[in-house]
């Protein structure tokens, strides 16, 4: 038994979640008072809701940002990411900047006279993304809503992450992640198989784990149970 086959599989997954975006306005103290008023009208409004904090235009320094996040935490508002912060403001002790989000309709504020739950908008249907250019080293292509088709190659040091399947019409030399939204049926196909890392539904293998199988040849990758299988393309 080789060392790579004796290691237990490690899974990681990407998933899309609905998050509220809170955009405070100046003066922040008055805005927090309005937030408290909302909490009194609808105490459960923020329960179980992840929040993205948009601080663009506030001009807060790091101490002010830390204080605002603490004020929200004291109100049981779970901030999972911060947008609009100046470079270098985030880091230890603060949530990271989010990536890959897209705007949706505004969430209605509860009417104090009607105690009805707020229903978030339905998720967008799955759709494919076509990348007409090669993916260069250092680039990341993220599309959790469906398949990704790359008409060129994926360079070493590049990363392509698809919620569905991933199709590369050139050489695959970077990191290819399919089924990142929790799809074990996803596949990876390419015309020249030279990846640094491949993953499907959170199960991954590095180039060292894969060995020479299909190296430099057309290949398809799929899951069979908890094993990644690489085969030729007919």
Automatic annotation (TrEMBL):
<feature type="domain" description="Septum formation inhibitor MinC C-terminal">
    <location>
        <begin position="130"/>
        <end position="230"/>
    </location>
</feature>
<keyword id="KW-0131">Cell cycle</keyword>
<comment type="subunit">
    <text>Interacts with MinD and FtsZ.</text>
</comment>
<dbReference type="InterPro" id="IPR016098">
    <property type="entry name" value="CAP/MinC_C"/>
</dbReference>
<comment type="function">
    <text>Cell division inhibitor that blocks the formation of polar Z ring septums. Rapidly oscillates between the poles of the cell to destabilize FtsZ filaments that have formed before they mature into polar Z rings. Prevents FtsZ polymerization.</text>
</comment>
<dbReference type="InterPro" id="IPR005526">
    <property type="entry name" value="Septum_form_inhib_MinC_C"/>
</dbReference>
<dbReference type="Pfam" id="PF03775">
    <property type="entry name" value="MinC_C"/>
</dbReference>
<keyword id="KW-0132">Cell division</keyword>
<protein>
    <recommendedName>
        <fullName>Probable septum site-determining protein MinC</fullName>
    </recommendedName>
</protein>
<comment type="similarity">
    <text>Belongs to the MinC family.</text>
</comment>
<keyword id="KW-0717">Septation</keyword>
<dbReference type="InterPro" id="IPR013033">
    <property type="entry name" value="MinC"/>
</dbReference>
<dbReference type="InterPro" id="IPR036145">
    <property type="entry name" value="MinC_C_sf"/>
</dbReference>
């Amino acid at each position: 038994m080789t060392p790579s086959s004796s290691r237990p599989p490690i899974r990681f997954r990407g998933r899309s979640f609905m998050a509220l975006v809170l955009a405070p306005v100046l003066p922040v103290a008055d805005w927090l008072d309005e937030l408290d008023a909302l909490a009194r009208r609808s105490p459960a409004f923020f329960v179980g809701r992840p929040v993205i904090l948009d601080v663009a235009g506030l001009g807060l320094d790091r101490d002010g940002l830390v204080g605002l996040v603490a004020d929200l935490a004291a109100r049981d508002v779970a901030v999972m990411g911060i947008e609009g912060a100046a470079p270098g403001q985030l880091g230890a002790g603060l949530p990271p900047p989010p990536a890959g989000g897209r705007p949706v309709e505004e969430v209605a504020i509860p009417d104090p006279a009607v105690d009805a739950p707020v229903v978030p908008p339905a998720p967008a249907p799955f759709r494919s993304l076509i990348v007409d250019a090669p993916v260069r080293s250092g680039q990341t292509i993220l599309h959790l809503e469906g398949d990704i088709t790359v008409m060129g190659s994926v360079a070493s040091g590049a990363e392509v992450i698809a919620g569905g399947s991933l199709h590369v019409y050139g050489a695959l030399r970077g990191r290819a992640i399919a089924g990142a939204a929790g799809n074990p049926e996803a596949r990876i196909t390419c015309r020249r198989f030279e990846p640094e890392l491949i993953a499907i539904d959170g199960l991954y293998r590095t180039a060292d784990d894969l060995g020479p199988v299909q190296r430099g040849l057309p290949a398809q990758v799929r899951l069979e149970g908890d094993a990644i299988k690489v085969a030729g393309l007919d």
